[in-house]
Amino acid sequence: MTQLSKTLELDDLKSTQPAYLESIFSLANGHVGVRASDPINPSEDAGTVVNGFYEESDIHYGEKAYGYADKNQTIVKLPDIRRITVYDDNRNKFDQSQLKDMHLDMAQGILYSTYELSNSQNESIELSLTSVVDQKENQFIGLRYEITGKNYLGNIKVEKDFDLDTTAQDSDDPRKSRGVTTLQYDSLNLQDLKGLRVTTDNSKLFVEMGLALSEDMEMILTLKDGPIKFDVLAIVGDIGQHISSTDLPTFESIKEESIEFWTRFWNQSEVEINGDDSLNKAIHFNLYQLESSAGRDGKTNISAKGLSGVGYEGHYFWDTEMYMAPFFAYTNPDIAADLIKYRYSILPEAKERARTLGVSDGALFTWRTINGKEASAYYPASTAQYHIDADIAFAIYRYFTITEDNQLIKDYGLEIVLETAKFWTNFGSFSEIDGKQRFCFFDVTGPDEYSAIVNNNYYTNRMAKFNLDFAIQLIKKFPEEAKQLGADKHTLNEFAKIRDAIYLPFDEEKGINEQDDSYFKKPVWPFEQTPKENYPLLLHYHPLTIYRYQVNKQADTLFADFLFDDISKEQLIKEYDYYEKITTHDSSLSRSIFSALAARLGLSDKAYSYFRDTAKTDLIDLQGNTNDGLHIANLGGSWIAIVEGFGGIQIKNDTLNIRNNLPDAWNGMTIHIRYRDCLLEIDYSQDNVQVKVLSGDPINIVIDGIKSTVGN
Amino acid sequence: MTQLSKTLELDDLKSTQPAYLESIFSLANGHVGVRASDPINPSEDAGTVVNGFYEESDIHYGEKAYGYADKNQTIVKLPDIRRITVYDDNRNKFDQSQLKDMHLDMAQGILYSTYELSNSQNESIELSLTSVVDQKENQFIGLRYEITGKNYLGNIKVEKDFDLDTTAQDSDDPRKSRGVTTLQYDSLNLQDLKGLRVTTDNSKLFVEMGLALSEDMEMILTLKDGPIKFDVLAIVGDIGQHISSTDLPTFESIKEESIEFWTRFWNQSEVEINGDDSLNKAIHFNLYQLESSAGRDGKTNISAKGLSGVGYEGHYFWDTEMYMAPFFAYTNPDIAADLIKYRYSILPEAKERARTLGVSDGALFTWRTINGKEASAYYPASTAQYHIDADIAFAIYRYFTITEDNQLIKDYGLEIVLETAKFWTNFGSFSEIDGKQRFCFFDVTGPDEYSAIVNNNYYTNRMAKFNLDFAIQLIKKFPEEAKQLGADKHTLNEFAKIRDAIYLPFDEEKGINEQDDSYFKKPVWPFEQTPKENYPLLLHYHPLTIYRYQVNKQADTLFADFLFDDISKEQLIKEYDYYEKITTHDSSLSRSIFSALAARLGLSDKAYSYFRDTAKTDLIDLQGNTNDGLHIANLGGSWIAIVEGFGGIQIKNDTLNIRNNLPDAWNGMTIHIRYRDCLLEIDYSQDNVQVKVLSGDPINIVIDGIKSTVGN
Q1: Closest partner residue to A63 among B377, B523, B548, by Cβ?
Q2: What is the mean pLDDT of chain B?
Q3: Cβ-nearest to B545 among A358, A539, A541
Q4: Are A10 and A103 in contact (CB under 8 A)?
Q5: At A243, is the secondary structure helix, strand, or coil?
Q6: Which of B232, B314, B226, B273 is nearest to B49 (CA)?
Q7: A513 phi and psi, to 5 degrees?
């Protein structure tokens, strides 16, 4: 079954630049990612990525200070497994290749690619490669090669082995990844397998890879009797685990599992737009790649580029909790739970980090990390973003609200929420503002990285307030478990006192929340004198220049407004209008929130326009760097925009609310989400919303403000 | 003639640790500095320093951004010229040495050192080395070695050559210097000279050095007939200039010039304390070393460690203008003028830097530099210290007020003052504060580096106000010259408008100036919970931890108070009291200002106590790092404390004012300063001040508030 809206083709894309295609068509399963390289002439970015497999190196500072991150953590680019070498009769290579077709079946998780190969005599053959990633044990990649003679019909010989990248180089662009030059490659002695162990010198990790070949590649094959077909099974083991050559799956069995997996996935996660095929395909692509990126073992997370490339060094950021986790919480809560378990696994490092930052109790999660330690070398836009603590608490809150999974809270969530709450109480301090004692946070950076080291960032303060409030709720709900973790009535009172006193900057004259204590005092960025080519600003202006103006890289105060929906519509409209004018959207995390909030406000055109850019960020290469990997947070952001924005999905007073914010351009939309024990199908048309319970018991929900009970 | 108070001996010092002694007893002449190494076993810090002779290297950032400094500038440590090798009859070295005596005659500029040397047979000889630095042509160092037999009276052979340091290593301590490993050493073919050219690979500079030996060192010498004496003349050429072996001075001629130079120096710069020999000697040491450190060619400046070591990489800071220049302006205005000329020479780089910082007109001097380009890798405590612009303008103002040197203003000063004034007008912006339009500066760092990236730092704003005011004065006084530089009546009005609108934070409740917009909102540093070993704080706390508290590394608002004397005594007492409580004096620039201000306030005990620490910072190794070089700014600070503090020297309304703030502990004090064309001798006793004009015409001054005319 081919679904057009779930088939991504070359015509859907901005370009056919090889590294760009490698990212777009990458296949992954949360553990291993395979960039869609040309098997004859892979780009220098081609390769395989294993979630969480990183090398350490010293961070060099021009000037170092106490408490700075001291080690880089860099995701390792493993050998490209798609590569083969094809020889002609005269032992000359078919070393030219031309891409003829590439398409990804997102309904089944299968990538098809076809190349015309030629040798120096201009003799040509056709190579097609079908690849599929194992979605069950997560260790296998099935590769089916088929070679057909064109104007060459002689004998061929094929070589298939690991191609080791020993030309790694460093880069100064923080959005790329530094090269890793401290890897050891060892051959493995395994029956019927070409095996390779890749060991990191400093982080002392290893991954084993294997290639199981269905044919004897030493044989000379002839094309004159028709196409030659052979399968290669690639194995990429877990970090620190040995691979084996027994009980290996076949290409067909991997394919079957993949079809089953993606069928189930779409049943749980469907988003179908009626009235815009191109956006419909874009959102399918986004969800497909988002699902592919997420670690499913509780030990790994979702890197900023997923498993589609090595950009941002494979680090995990707040992106997970605030942009990616909503999708999982509403469609695949097991993965949302795994992402929380990962944070729990690095709680010891977070406690240590809080001590390093001079805070006597509680935990401070690091801004960018794989192993839990801080890996950012620029603290004003990393360590100072203390809000990550509350972001993680918020992801737990969201998960809990949707699933009511008490066990996960008891086992993992409660401790995280208590430790982050404690952090805020020990990090902040009381200060008199307008004659009242208010609880303040000094020298912090909010989500908007175009301001840094400010006082009372609205988003940060609002999130801290939430974090304390949620901790209070959990202490009340799980008093025994809380007590075991040292939180009692005294804690509760302390938390409540501080929660109530947290200062939230508000500008009386403008009637809107102020991004931080001094934000509106600064001049507005001279947008009219700024040429287009000077965006993104961070590449063309010194941080001090950017910081001293009112200019936003991304949603900040508005993000808090979106999350908490706690200000009047009148204020929100003013606030949206004000901040929109000064936002550059230089971050790929920005437009989705502007879209979702606009949809909620009934600013339909704006919502739609931002959504279009969000949905197609990678397909149109909006940021110009998709070749380094996909913008995974934005993929999640596009789901937020469509489901929480247009679909008006929101949980209020412990009840699922749906509001129909469908854009005019669409005839309708169908989404599948989970809420509590139900899988729901929600059908939106221009004048109606219909909800069906696909599985589970009838539930009470609110549709466009009206309470109703829905069943199957 | 030996003056006890001008002879520094080992007994005056904290320790005899070799690297410490090398700094303390270093000899210099503004061009070349020679660390006082043990000639047999120099420490690894031993060597020769040439003012402004630096190598470049790439600055490596963990994360780089637009406009960051991209090259280190690192002062080169040149070969140690004191080193010799002495062999016994059996060609064994006298390789053990023990320091017997070292003393510095600061009245004449001669360093005496004596060592007992022994070989592996425990046979010993005595080596004494007398050294003196040429103060005329500035290229020569006279070294007189004398070897006397002790229980060894056989033959000796001496070797004397350059000892090349090829073991340079990097250091992470920002107060030290990184190692330079990119030097080329070439022998020079010069008659009667061992010559060496040292070339830097990246900055493409060279310095030539030579050793002229008075004896044929190949000869075997015998000790049994009495001591053996020989002279070595070391030559250290100007940067980029060839040295020659003709017209070389002798040891004696260098010595004579030195005596003449230092006699003249003390006549112009005398500070004599009557009643505390130890402090008297300390202040003599400070002035001696301060004078030795200052570049005298208009192309070089005074590095943070002078020429006594390679700490702080030989960079020039605001230290020059605010701590060192007062001494020169009042005692040796030619050097003060040279220091201004240096700034003029890097004005093109300062204009370029302003553009890089997004400011469309004017010049921004870089925070730490040799060649005019920014060399600091940590912008929150460097580039953000915009106040350096006004500091430089202030040094010009001070020089001009004292000397009335119109020509220097026309040729150099005016353009600097106009360019820095223009910077402020384009860098700042109007903002409404308490219903009024005030001119503000956002995201700046003041002198206190324990706060960073703040708004409206009092010191910065006050200095900017001064800078504009001074520019206005100069435009009025030199209208033709100003016009040629593009400054006319319109400029004057614009400057005046902004000067009058500059915002100065003041806290109504406390009744004192506030360090910045949000300073008093922050909690006070938990001093009581801070163990002594955690100072200096910067080595034990993350910058974000320090920044979020009220805690000062050094005088900030109080420094502005000291400079401008523009607030009531009542307010100043409150302000002093408030800021003193939260100041750690972790910077060596702090105590001198606290002392001077206390003296002015009549807080005699405090003034005296701070002065004692200031005066002896290096002699007692207060900061624990004198081995990296002397704290030159503090040497100048000690002069400020004694002359402007206790001596009450101040220029008000274009008139020299003297106030007798002599501490109780002293019987009296005599100082020599220049004012306009006069060299003055001012004698303070507990109940009297007497002023004598040593040279020049009678002038009107104010003594303890009373106008009087003084003559010779």
Answers
A1: B377
A2: 95
A3: A358
A4: yes
A5: coil
A6: B314
A7: -65, 140
The answer to whether A281 and A5 have CB atoms below 8 angstroms apart is yes
Where helices occur in A385-528 by DSSP H, the ranges are: 388-403, 406-408, 414-427, 458-477, 479-484, 489-501
Could you identify the residue written with the tokens 């001049």? A523
SS3 A82: coil
Give the nearest chain A residue to B358 (CA atoms): A545
Q: Which residues pair with B702 in a beta bridge?
A: B657, B707
Q: Among B97, B74, B73, B72, which residue's Cα sits nearest to residue B84?
A: B97
Contact A19/A298 with Cβ under 8 angstroms?
no
The answer to whether B443 and B359 are in contact (CB under 8 A) is no
CB A45 within 8 A of CB A100: no
Q: Are A556 and A582 in contact (CB under 8 A)?
A: no
User: CB distance from A517 to chain B under 8 Å?
Assistant: yes
Report d(CA A79, CA A196) in Å as an integer.
Answer: 10
Q: From residue A403, give the alpha-carbon distance in Å to each of A331, A345, A644.
A: 10, 21, 17
Chain B residues inside the 8 Å CB shell of A357 = 542, 544-545
3-state secondary structure of B390: helix
Contact between B651 and B627 (Cβ < 8 Å): no
Between helix A557-564 and helix A591-601 the angle, nearest 10°, is 50
pLDDT of residue A1: 45
Q: A678 exposed, middle or buried (CB, 10 Å; 0-12, 13-18, 19+)? A: buried
For residue A407, the tally of other CB atoms under 10 A from its CB is 9
* Cα angle value B599/B603/B609 (rounded, 5°): 80
Per residue in A303-344, pLDDT (tens digit) is: 999 999 999 999 999 999 999 999 999 999 999 999 999 999
Dihedral of the CA atoms B134, B135, B136, B141 (nearest 10)? 10
Contact of A442 with chain B, judged by CB distance below 8 Å, is answered with yes
The vertex-A107 CA angle with A105 and A109, nearest 5°, equals 60
Does the pLDDT at position A232 exceed 50? yes
Q: What's the pLDDT at B647?
A: 98
Residue A132 has which token pair?
């599929």
Cα A636 from Cα A430, distance rounded (Å): 37
Radius of gyration of chain A (CA): 26
Pairwise CA distance, residues B580 & B571, whole Å: 14
* Set of chain A residues whose Cβ sits within 8 Å of the Cβ of B501: none
Query: What are the tokens at A158?
Result: 């094929």
Instruction: Decide if A74 contacts A377 (C-beta within 8 A).
Output: no
Tens digits of per-residue pLDDT, A5-25? 999 999 999 899 999 999 999
Q: Which residues of B touch A383 (CB under 8 A)?
A: 542, 544
Residue A681's alpha-carbon distances to A238, A405, A636, A678, in angstroms, are 36, 22, 20, 10
User: Would an 8 Å CB–CB cutoff place B510 in contact with chain A?
Assistant: no
Running along chain B, 712 residues long, what does each successive block of 10 average in pLDDT?
A: 84 93 98 97 95 96 93 96 94 96 98 97 96 96 96 92 66 60 92 93 97 79 90 97 93 98 97 95 98 97 96 95 98 98 98 97 98 97 98 98 97 98 98 95 98 98 98 98 96 98 97 98 97 96 98 98 97 98 95 97 96 94 92 96 98 96 96 96 96 96 95 82
The DSSP output letter for B474 is H
Q: Which residue of A has its CA nearest to B375?
A: A62
- The predicted model scores a pTM of 0.94
Q: Give the DSSP per-residue string, A562-603.
A: HHH--S-HHHHHHHHHHHHHTB---STTSHHHHHHHHHHHT-
Q: A358 vs A66, A354, A385, A498, B688, CA distance in Å?
A: 11, 6, 15, 19, 53
**Could you tell me if A530 lies within 8 Å of chain B, comparing CB atoms?**
no
ipTM (interface pTM): 0.94
